[in-house]
Write a structure and sequence with these properties.
There is one protein chain. The chain is about 45% helix and about 25% strand. The chain has a single domain, classed as K homology (KH) domain (GMP Synthetase, Chain A, domain 3). The mean pLDDT is about 95. The protein is of the alpha+beta class and about 80 residues long. About 15% of the residues are buried. It contains three helices and three strands; from the N terminus they run αββααβ. The longest helix is centred in the last third of the chain and has 16 residues. Strands 1-2-3 form a three-stranded mixed beta sheet, with helices on one face.
Length: about 80
């Protein structure tokens, strides 16, 4: 999941070198944290959160194949 979020985020932002994705295992599932440059935050979130919602939908669909629960946090 980490690689999937990283590829999507790097394609969206202006500064792909500053994209950092971390993955943590919790009792609720896997938490994927996405950190981007402050100037790129709007590009990752999108108008009314549409891009962020799309990223979460793609990751959720991929996680369902592996029968896991994944939460994507944009920091």
């Amino acid at each position: 999941m980490k690689e999937l979020v990283e590829v999507i985020a790097k394609a969206l932002v202006e500064f792909p070198d500053e994209v950092v994705v971390t993955e943590k295992e919790t009792d609720k599932g896997i938490v994927v944290e996405l950190h981007v440059a402050a100037s790129d935050m709007g590009k990752v979130i999108g108008k009314q959160g549409r891009i962020a919602k799309a990223i979460r939908s793609v990751v959720k669909a991929s996680a369902m194949k592996e029968d896991k629960k994944v939460i994507v946090d944009i920091m």
